[in-house]
Queue: 2 jobs
Job 1
Amino acid sequence: MNQPAAIAALDATYTISGATLVDGVTLEVNHGELVALVGPNGAGKSTLLSLLTGEREPTSGRTQLEGRLLSEWPHKELARRRGVLTQDNNVAFAFRVAEVVEMGRAPWQGTPQSDEDDAAIADAMERTDIAHLADRVFTSLSGGERARASLARVLAQQATIVLLDEPTAALDLRHQEDVMRLARQLARDGVAVVVVVHDLSLAAAYADRVAVMSKGRLVTAGAPGEVLTEQLVEEVYGTPVRIVPDPTTGAPLIVPVRS
Ligand code: ADP
Ligand code: MG
């Protein structure tokens, strides 16, 4: 028998006050796979993610985790299995960075896994390059530092499904690469990873599959080199691009045409 997908939207539609934000999307992500979710602003990426996390329920169609309807999972079980970084990853209170990361361990409280709390927290802070910020107040951090601290919280959770909404948006070049490399490592360790990312070259460099959304629909999903054609990118984004192979890796680099 086939293993069920780690996380799946099956013909999922989400409608609110007459607007269809997600329109009949089917997307299955397996353990060990990194899927980059791309598309213009307002395409429905965050809404689709909120369906996949169980934050919202589809108006029609289904969303499943490990083959079971998300709505059927007990909240606690769900919290142990999937980690979520939302687009507005802000902590409103004056927590220290180490405390924010520690919050990722909350689902494991009272289980044998809580023995690993300290190691998981230290490892997450190391991998996101924020160990030196441990005692800083979260709200005093720069946007990029906040994003990394929030990502560390998700890593500390040690979930086997990880959904990240624009984790690289506030980051400088090096930390963008660091985050995507990290996402890649998670996938290599068997985690199912979905990352919303705007930089198509970054998506192409690190993802196993790129899923392209436009106007609530999933336009296409597949290997970066197959999916990201000049025609498709131009059509979806409404601006001309050239696609050239990375001189080192051959991965597609998406370059806007400028006159
Ligand atoms: P993305 O993450 O791809 O930028 P979103 O999923 O956040 O897109 O939003 C998709 C679209 O749905 C946007 O055009 C947004 O303005 C719209 N939208 C979001 N929430 C609501 C709502 N409550 N009612 C109507 N439209 C909404
Ligand atoms: Mg969004």
Note: Residues 16-17, 19, 21, 39, 41-47 surround adenosine-5'-diphosphate (ligand 1) (CB under 6 Å).
Job 2
Amino acid sequence: MAYTISKLTDYSAAALERASAELFSALGDEASTVKNEGDWKIFRDRWMARKNGVLTQINDLWLKAAPKEAKREVGLRVNLIKEQVEQQVADAKVRYQIPELPISSATSEISETNLRRDAIGKAGIIDITLPGIRRPIGAEHPVVKTTNEMVRVFQRLGYSVAEGPVVETDYYNFESLNFPPNHPARDTQDTLFIAGQQAKPQRERLLLRTHTSPVQIRTMEKMRPPLRIVIPGTVHRNDPLDASHSPMFHQIEGLAVDTNITFGDLKGTLDHAMKEFFGSSVKTSFRPSFFPFTEPSAEMFVSCFICGGSGRRGTDPCRPCKQTGWIEILGCGMVDPNVFEFVKDNGYDPRKVSGFAFGMGADRIALLKYGVDDIQLFFQGDVRFLRQWA
Ligand code: DAH
């Protein structure tokens, strides 16, 4: 039988409690039968309609009729009932709008919370009292972290950061760096060319830059000497995948041009940078090499920061330095005058200025620094691996 509000004859706390409990039980029962908008409107009006809704009736039959001394107590009860009714009416609406959720969630606080959270999206209802959605904080990728640390070392020396395009022309990647057309030094770069470029003159043909060195020329075209820049960036080569090679990898390049720059400046700068980056105990060693865009050219090694230069770890051979005690870190040299010839008109007269340049592999340094034994792990995007840097 449908619940009806009766007049109160007894205003004692116990009687009020009994009457409220009876009302709440009816409220819960009726709320759980709401299945659609039609039901809900009837339910809402039955309890909340200004004219003869249950709340109005309680107001009249319980509160207004109460003797003076009971008014305060009855008023508190009626307020409580009003809150409950409003809540149940709102919840009943959410429930029929999201039919896949359990009809009665009153028994579990957690399901009630989920119910309301889902309601935010589905019914456009926002409950600002719910806890926020926790978003996991990402971590800097180890290659990015290494790059940023190295770039910062040079920034502290007064270098600025320069960048350039990954899809580059033959001119910037090769010709202006003193790799003449058909020069065998081009073969060492395993270049990935963009298809369909044959109709263009060679210097305009597009390719994926094989090193960050083209940004040297691009920057010298824009900025007059003196110049000190550090160039981080992505490069590509047609190398098959293995533990130490990836067709996509990262370099950090540097260039300093001024009057009277010497090989001594190159050695002093790089030795300082390596001590900053790897720790003050590392030593550097320069060995002759060849690059078309530097003369003389060198490869720089640092004493192995894993075994301390001994070539051994305890009784085991040190693998990262192949027991030599030295690790090759970068290529460098004095900028070849032929390179300056390409930007002579912007103040780079090879008779007046000199400079040094260097380039290193950021991924290789990250592998060594973090003791990772497979470069592929850097690019597979497995969050279990990447989380280690969080
Ligand atoms: N571009 C060279 C490479 O990718 C690395 C390099 C060597 C850069 C010597 C330089 C340099 O700036 O002076 O193998």
Note: Confidence is low (pLDDT under 50) at residues 102-110.
